[in-house]
Specification:
- This protein is an alpha+beta fold.
- The protein has one domain (27-163): Lipocalin (Beta Barrel), CATH 2.40.128.
- The chain is built from two helices and nine strands.
- Strands 1-3-4-5-6-7-8-9 form an eight-stranded antiparallel barrel.
- Strand 3 (55-61) and strand 4 (66-73) form a beta hairpin.
- The N and C termini lie far apart (55 Å).
Length: 164
């Protein structure tokens, strides 16, 4: 009888471990991604074309439902402009340059069934976009992640990311 009880206890323990291991299993999109290309769909031809003569950036999803995005124009860092942070006395050229950097942090949720990731923004480089929730369709193929904004205003964009 003791042996049966031990077998039942061990079985319950092993079953419980398997359940917990499944819960700990992270989303496949977790990790650091580097932007390969950002494209806009031509509404007349349906063809995808590189957006704004090239973009660069990084996308990060972690195991704690946090994400971060940083996009800049291609070659953003290749400038002779130098200016201090947190000051209101920089040149117009520097201000214009800063507008080519787009950053936000968010909590995220993945709907694997519909291939949608939802970003609940907690901060943004544009004050008007703080605390907004945005949804992104995604396709994952090995080390390539394609993200498409689902909001009408940005639905013509496609961002292709490579695992970093």
């Amino acid at each position: 009888m003791k042996e049966c009880i031990y077998i039942v206890i061990i079985s319950i323990f092993l079953h419980g471990c398997n359940e917990n291991c499944d819960e700990v299993n992270t989303n496949d999109i977790n990790g650091l991604w580097s932007l390969e290309v950002m494209e806009q769909k031509d509404i007349n031809t349906g063809e995808w074309r590189e957006w704004r003569n090239g973009m660069q950036g990084y996308l990060l999803y972690d195991d704690n439902d946090n994400m971060a995005l940083h996009l800049t124009t291609e070659g953003y860092e290749e400038t002779d402009l130098r200016f201090p942070n947190f000051t209101d006395t920089i040149s117009i050229d520097a201000l214009k340059h800063l507008t080519n950097s787009y950053v936000y942090f968010a909590k995220y949720k993945v709907d694997k069934e519909n291939n949608i990731v939802e970003h609940s923004r907690i901060s943004h480089s544009n004050p008007g976009d703080w605390n907004k929730v945005v949804r992104r369709g995604f396709e994952l193929n090995k080390d390539t992640l394609i993200i498409r904004p689902l909001e009408d205003s940005n639905s013509g964009l496609r961002l292709t990311w490579i695992r970093y």
